Amino acid sequence: MPAHRLPDLPGRVAIPGQSRGTPGTPAPLDRFNTAPAEDAERTLLGCLNSLRWALRVAGHRPYPDLASLLAASDEAAYDLSPEELAEALAAEALPALPEDTYAAAHTALNAAYAAYEAKFGHVFVICLDGLEPAEILDHVLADIRSRLANDPDEERPVAAEELRRLARGRLVAALTAAAPAA
Q: What is the pLDDT, as a whole number, of residue 9?
């Protein structure tokens, strides 16, 4: 007899971090784990445009839980070579601002984006997950001004960290979007 025996609770056991969806419907992580390799890789490339990253994360399936998938995603992102980082950055778009952002802010940001791209050779990337819409503009402006003071060797790991954070958020969103409506 095992040291820690759980009571028999048929149909009543919930595993934290794993949404099971509706009965008879596989959870998003289960669908990701069992998807054909090409589909999993396509989903991953939508999160971070690095083929090696996508192949590595897809190749380690199945993941027992979302935390394990995110840890593997992080580890693979930390291992991006400078060339792979450049490939991923080349596919990024500028962060979107709230629709009600005033024109002067767009002008200021466009100038800052152009200065950033001229200095570093790629678009400005920033993860805005968890910010209130009212905070986004100030956060982007402060961050781009701060990062423009970096030299390219200082900025490379900052951009890589922002890409890692973006990939995490996109991966969670991709799995959530794959969930069927209840």
A: 38
